[in-house]
Design brief:
With 221 residues, the protein is an all-alpha fold. It has two domains: 118 residues, no CATH class; 63 residues, Orthogonal Bundle (Arc Repressor Mutant, subunit A). Helices cover 69% and strands 0% of the residues. The radius of gyration is 37 Å and the shape is rod-shaped.
């Protein structure tokens, strides 16, 4: 069960006052208990847990009961933890706002706060996408390229770009048409104003040159 972590202690005088209030009064009244909680008196937090933790948890469970198929035991613990954090937040602003003169008992006020915390959680969960099981990730697919494959392709493209710097402009134009665009030898011959025989000859020479440059690059790596 989540136990509130006390914040930084207030001045010693306040702590001494809270200790006096709690001393010999295990069932301290609401005002005394709240003042001791604000003063970070450890015995006050133990008293708080003893008197109200079951009330808070039962209130949270009652609010979320209709969502038992959605709200898990872990969610219940999260709601309870959020409730405790709210009591401590902003220099215990909520605790300081408790006013018994309005006619509310501390138990009633805490129950209302726990109820609001539970409803806030349910509203937030409703806006979140459905939480899928981890096993469902195996069935996920995407139209985008595989990230590893894309990285490998970029690496190869960079490597090819470096190799092509060793060729003349005419050779790079040939490589773009024949290997890049995949044009037929006849079309490459027309585009470059050379014979088809020259296309085949240039193809073999460029391939041999690329293989040599690639081998040299691998040896230098």
């Amino acid at each position: 069960m989540f136990t509130p972590v006390t914040a930084q202690s207030r001045p010693d005088q306040t702590n001494q006052e809270a200790a006096v209030l709690m001393q010999g009064t295990p069932a301290a009244d609401d005002t005394q208990l709240v003042r001791a909680l604000i003063a970070d008196e450890p015995r006050a937090w133990r008293e708080f847990n003893t008197r109200f933790s079951r009330l808070v948890l039962s209130t949270i469970s009652r609010v979320t009961a209709r969502f038992s198929g959605v709200v898990s035991q872990e969610d219940l613990r999260e709601i309870y933890a959020t409730f405790c954090v709210q009591l401590l937040a902003n220099d215990k602003h909520k605790l300081r706002s408790f006013d018994p003169e309005r006619g509310n008992k501390l138990s009633t006020w805490l129950g209302l706060l726990a109820s609001h915390t539970a409803y806030d959680f349910l509203r937030s969960a409703r806006r979140e996408p459905r939480r899928a099981a981890l096993s469902e990730a195996e069935d996920l697919s995407s139209s985008l390229p595989d990230p590893c494959e894309s990285a490998l392709m970029r690496e190869r493209a960079d490597q090819v770009g470096q190799l092509l710097s060793h060729f003349t402009d005419k050779d790079r134009a040939f490589i773009q048409l024949y290997f890049g665009e995949g044009l037929a030898p006849e079309l490459v011959a027309v585009r470059l104003n050379i014979s088809v025989k020259t296309v085949y000859s240039k193809k073999h020479k460029i391939q041999a040159r690329l293989q040599t440059l690639l081998a040299e690059a691998q040896l230098a790596a």
